[in-house]
């Protein structure tokens, strides 16, 4: 079964726009779980422009599904993750001021840095995942770092999907087979939506988890959060 992890960054963005506590990030996370989400993802950034460190500490004991923290492994991020001990940490190669993650890791160039981090997080009992493109060699290097999983960066799939679904999915199916043959778990995320998620899942049914934020929260404006989560889960059946 492929788990749906809801990325709640956008809820924090909306809250921060007015400075109060509306919408309440913690309540939304709990409601996502109540409506069927199998995980909650947050991406704390150094400028705290959406999720704050304090949100991460408040969410940890409240979440009863799987808690995934993603981000660039700065010393502050590593310290936060080790204190909070989520179920999973997903490392992304983001610059601090980046709008959103827009590339996977070069696991060859950053091999020793990532390998050390995999040891650090594994020793703390936290499952590790590395955000990555479909490049076979980079996936092989990710496996050598000791990562438990990779998260495939799906923006190129989402962009090409409307014109040519077969061409869009082909490199992802190949990459997913490589990941499976290396014995790693498989996550996917970025720009997944009600339009393109089912086709991805139909072609890669062994996906462990998808992490979805932007499109899901946009859909919730029209459908409501409960119906939206139900529809995303229907894509994963
Ligand atoms: N996975 C990673 C590593 C991300 O950085 C993001 C964006 O924060 C997502 C998944 C979710 O992407 P989207 O908001 O486009 O669904």
Beta-strand percent range: 15-25%
Low-confidence runs: none
Tertiary shape: globular
Q: Give the N-terminus to C-terminus distance in angstroms.
A: 8 Å
CATH fold-level name: TIM Barrel
Strand order of the largest sheet: 1-2-3-4-5-6-7-8
Give the cofactors and ligands: pyridoxine-5'-phosphate
CATH class: Alpha Beta
- The name of the CATH architecture is Alpha-Beta Barrel
User: Measured on Cα atoms, how large is the radius of gyration?
Assistant: 17 Å
Describe the SSE topology:
Elements: E1 3-7, H1 9-16, H2 25-34, E2 39-42, H3 53-62, E3 66-71, H4 75-84, E4 88-91, H5 111-123, E5 127-132, H6 136-145, E6 149-153, H7 155-160, H8 165-181, E7 185-189, H9 197-203, E8 209-212, H10 214-223, H11 225-235
Helix pairs in contact: 2-3, 5-6, 6-8, 10-11
The protein binds pyridoxine-5'-phosphate (PXP).
Pyridoxine-5'-phosphate (PXP) binds next to strand 8 and helix 10.
Structure description:
The protein has 237 residues and is an alpha/beta fold. It has a single domain (3-235), classed as Aldolase class I (TIM Barrel), CATH 3.20.20.70. 47% of the residues lie in helices and 16% in strands. Helix 2 (25-34) runs parallel beside helix 3 (53-62) and helix 5 (111-123) crosses helix 6 (136-145). Bound molecules: pyridoxine-5'-phosphate. Pyridoxine-5'-phosphate binds at residues 7, 9, 43, 70, 90, 92, 100-101, 131, 151, 189-192, 211-215.
């Amino acid at each position: 079964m492929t788990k749906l992890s809801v990325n709640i960054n956008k809820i924090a963005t909306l809250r921060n726009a007015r400075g109060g506590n509306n919408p309440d990030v913690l309540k939304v996370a709990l409601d996502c779980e109540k409506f069927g989400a199998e995980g909650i993802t947050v991406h704390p950034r150094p400028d705290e422009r959406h999720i704050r460190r304090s949100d991460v500490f408040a969410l940890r004991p409240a979440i009863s599904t799987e808690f995934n923290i993603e981000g660039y492994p700065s010393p502050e991020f590593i310290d936060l993750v080790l204190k909070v001990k989520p179920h999973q940490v997903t490392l992304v190669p983001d610059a601090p001021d980046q709008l959103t993650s827009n590339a996977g890791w070069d696991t060859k160039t950053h091999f020793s840095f990532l390998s050390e981090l995999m040891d650090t997080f594994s020793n703390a009992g936290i499952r590790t995942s590395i955000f990555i493109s479909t490049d076979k060699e980079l996936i092989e290097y990710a496996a050598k770092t000791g990562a438990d999983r990779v998260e495939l960066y799906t923006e190129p799939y989402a962009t090409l999907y409307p014109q040519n679904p077969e061409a869009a999915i082909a490199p992802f199916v190949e990459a997913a087979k490589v990941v499976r043959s290396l014995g790693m778990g498989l996550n996917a995320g970025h720009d997944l939506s009600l339009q393109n998620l089912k086709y991805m899942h139909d072609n890669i049914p062994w996906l462990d988890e998808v992490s979805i934020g932007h499109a899901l929260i946009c859909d919730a404006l029209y459908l409501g959060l409960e119906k939206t989560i139900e529809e995303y889960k229907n894509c994963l059946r």
